[in-house]
Amino acid sequence: MAKYRILYIFVAVVTLVGFFQPGTASAAERKLPQVDAGLYAVAPTPLQPAECGQCHSGQFANLQDSGGKHRFACQECHEVFHAYSPRKNNYDDLMPLCTMCHGQQHGPKQTDCLNCHQNPHAPLRVPSMDRLGSACADCHSGPAKELKKFPSAHTEQDCQSCHHEKHGYIPNCSECHDGHYADQPFADCMTCHERVHAPLRVNLPGNVKVQTCSACHDDAYGKWQKSKSKHSLVSCVRCHDAHGKIPDCRDCHGVPHNKKQMEMFPDCMTCHIDVHDLPVKNN
Ligand code: HEC
Ligand code: HEC
Ligand code: HEC
Ligand code: HEC
Ligand code: HEC
Ligand code: HEC
Ligand code: HEC
Ligand code: HEC
Ligand code: HEC
Ligand code: HEC
Ligand code: HEC
Ligand code: HEC
Fold first, then answer.
1. pLDDT digit string, tens, across residues 124-158
2. Does residue 27 lie within any of the structural domains?
3. Is the CB of 180 under 6 A from ligand 8?
4. 77 inside domain
5. Contacts of 141 (CB under 8 A, 6+ apart)
6. Does residue 41 belong to any structural domain of this protein?
7. Domain boundaries, position 257
């Protein structure tokens, strides 16, 4: 039948064409490779990061620019790589775990490391404030506890109202406050308000500028400043070494007068009248 004849011709042509295809030379015609054991007499050197980087340029660039303390050999983390198989669906299993090297860095509440450190090749790139917002105290228990323990107007403020813009930002007092007197240097605020998370715990070290006191104690300050007595040479904070503390004259003077007089007039102020402006002889 004509149908079969056409089929025979077709098969014959396909066979002939196949026979003359290049690259299908028989084993006899192929030049077989020579053994070169020298090629295998060396141990392969592990790929260096720059070599990995020839193909993984993105990861390499991240480590180069922002790798920080992760700039060590790739294989320290990628102990196994190039082993992904779609059939095994093992991609996640291949990826290094933070716990190989790190513990619970920020305590027990923040354990999903990659949720914030999204790029292990740029580990310090962490999310903006919105993401950290409600979690400040998980990692900074100190300030949160202090604000609670020493109630003040700062306790009523959100952390972010002061630490705004970006994580780690430290505000200056001048953003929200004036000084106690004109031109008071803002660098001085924390000599007295030593702990911003407990601002009402005022510390009065010996070297503070006592002009500050005048803002609220004009009376005492005015008298003291004009006084001719030797107390005007004594700093407010030598006597009031903690805010509000009233000193005992005897702390500095011992018992200055005879016993009989002291028994009769136990209160020094009966005669010395005003500690900030002691009456002195040639007044
Ligand atoms: C500190 C450990 C660490 C180092 C060092 C490191 N990697 Fe990674 N790498 C990881 C982790 C973890 C992942 C998985 C990230 C994920 O699941 O989102 C990863 C993922 C990858 C991926 C998969 C694609 C991707 O970006 O998620 C490639 C490719 C890769 N790393 C290449 C490299 C190369 C190349 C180097 C060195 C130049 C390197 N890594 C160094 C930890 C590391
Ligand atoms: C010659 C190019 C090339 C070099 C060199 C290379 N890789 Fe890869 N790598 C690839 C390709 C291609 C893939 C698969 C596609 C992809 O995920 O980008 C891959 C995938 C990966 C993956 C994810 C999937 C898996 O199976 O692990 C990691 C991790 C990885 N490489 C790490 C490395 C590290 C580390 C080095 C250096 C020690 C390195 N690669 C060197 C080409 C390369
Ligand atoms: C093979 C070990 C290894 C793995 C795995 C690893 N790290 Fe690290 N990482 C280190 C070392 C070492 C340092 C430096 C530690 C130090 O200075 O105390 C570091 C430092 C860091 C830093 C600080 C970076 C800097 O420049 O200061 C962050 C953030 C960090 N790792 C996050 C992670 C996260 C998130 C993972 C998981 C995705 C991870 N690491 C996986 C070894 C590792
Ligand atoms: C809620 C977000 C978040 C999570 C979750 C998180 N981190 Fe962090 N991590 C940060 C922030 C923010 C920093 C500070 C970065 C800076 O200094 O600007 C940081 C810093 C670090 C540092 C640098 C060391 C230091 O004290 O300065 C390491 C290491 C680190 N993280 C590891 C980890 C590991 C490991 C995990 C998982 C157990 C993890 N982080 C989970 C947000 C997070
Ligand atoms: C996942 C943990 C984590 C979270 C959540 C977090 N921080 Fe941090 N923060 C850190 C780490 C780590 C550092 C850097 C190490 C250090 O100085 O303690 C840091 C640094 C800071 C610093 C600078 C400290 C200094 O001495 O300069 C401030 C301020 C700060 N954080 C405020 C905040 C505020 C406000 C929030 C909430 C919006 C917050 N942090 C959320 C971990 C965290
Ligand atoms: C009224 C403004 C204000 C508020 C509210 C505030 N802070 Fe601060 N915080 C500061 C200032 C100013 C500093 C710098 C103090 C210094 O230099 O000693 C600071 C320092 C810090 C530091 C680094 C030094 C330290 O004490 O550890 C952290 C962390 C911090 N604050 C976290 C917080 C958290 C968390 C909250 C909320 C629970 C908070 N702050 C609320 C103003 C504020
Ligand atoms: C982001 C704004 C902000 C910053 C920054 C800030 N404060 Fe305040 N502070 C306030 C507010 C609001 C109050 C309550 C209203 C007022 O007294 O002005 C307050 C109140 C105070 C009080 C009185 C507390 C009370 O309970 O009566 C002191 C003291 C104080 N701040 C000191 C400081 C010092 C010192 C700094 C700098 C280290 C500082 N503040 C930084 C917002 C701020
Ligand atoms: C010499 C110590 C000293 C210095 C320096 C100082 N303060 Fe004060 N401050 C005090 C004392 C004391 C109080 C009263 C506390 C009380 O009422 O218990 C006070 C109260 C405050 C108050 C709350 C009462 C008010 O007047 O609103 C604020 C706000 C304040 N200081 C801000 C500042 C700022 C801002 C600076 C820096 C420019 C500063 N202080 C520097 C000692 C000082
Ligand atoms: C911002 C205002 C402010 C400043 C600045 C201030 N004080 Fe006061 N001071 C007060 C207030 C308000 C009281 C009353 C507190 C009370 O009754 O508990 C007070 C109380 C006192 C008392 C106790 C008074 C009594 O009757 O027991 C002494 C002493 C005192 N202050 C000394 C000082 C000295 C010294 C300075 C400067 C280093 C100073 N103060 C700065 C607001 C201030
Ligand atoms: C030599 C010690 C001494 C010095 C210096 C001194 N004070 Fe006093 N101050 C006292 C004593 C003691 C009292 C209690 C007086 C009394 O009970 O009559 C007192 C009381 C006060 C009082 C509460 C009663 C009143 O007079 O308003 C204030 C406020 C005060 N001092 C502020 C100041 C200021 C401000 C300065 C600096 C300008 C200052 N003091 C310097 C010892 C001193
Ligand atoms: C912190 C220490 C201190 C305290 C507290 C103190 N004084 Fe003085 N006082 C002095 C010093 C210093 C002098 C000057 C001594 C000198 O130069 O010889 C002085 C001098 C005096 C003088 C001589 C005055 C003159 O100008 O010649 C009298 C009187 C006196 N004090 C009374 C008192 C009385 C009363 C009290 C209690 C209300 C008191 N002092 C509390 C430190 C103090
Ligand atoms: C009965 C009145 C009276 C009483 C009470 C009194 N004094 Fe005096 N005090 C005087 C007189 C008067 C002088 C002046 C003596 C002089 O100028 O020689 C004086 C002098 C002083 C001097 C200066 C001494 C000198 O050598 O310059 C000091 C210090 C002093 N008194 C401290 C005190 C103290 C502290 C008390 C309470 C424990 C006190 N006085 C109680 C009357 C009194």
1. 998 777 778 888 999 999 999 999 999 999 999 99
2. no
3. yes
4. yes
5. 107
6. no
7. 217-283
